[in-house]
Amino acid sequence: MKTKRERFETIAAKRVQKIINDMNSLAKCANKNNYEYNDEDIKKMVKVLKQKIKNLEDFFFQHKNNNKNEFKF
Fold first, then answer.
1. pTM of the predicted model, to two decimals?
2. Please, where are the H alpha helices in 1-73?
3. For residues 27 and 49, what is the distance between their CA atoms, to the nearest angstrom?
């Protein structure tokens, strides 16, 4: 039986690799011989990806520090 840590490492590694593969695939769209896009398109894509990374980071840290959302004076 795997520990929680071992399960995390296995699943997280696979999911991160999938995201990396998907990002590499998206990068192929940069080929102007095959696709047409403008600076605004790039900014929109990068903005949403950065926001999702920020959300992911926040989510992990919120679960790490359960008191983060606790009200205190």
1. 0.79
2. 4-27, 39-64
3. 13
Euclidean distance between CA atoms 14 and 30, whole angstroms: 25
Q: Indicate the residue type of 62.
A: Q
**Chain centroid to CA 66:** 21
Q: Which two tokens stand for residue 21?
A: 């593969």
Of the candidates 13, 12, 44, 9, which has an alpha carbon nearest to the alpha carbon of residue 26? 44
Instruction: Report residue 19 as tokens.
Output: 């995201």
Q: Residue 50: which of 40, 60, 39, 42 has the closest Cα?
A: 42
**Per-domain residue ranges for the chain?**
1-33, 35-65
Distance CA 25, CA 10 (A): 23
pLDDT(67) > 90: no
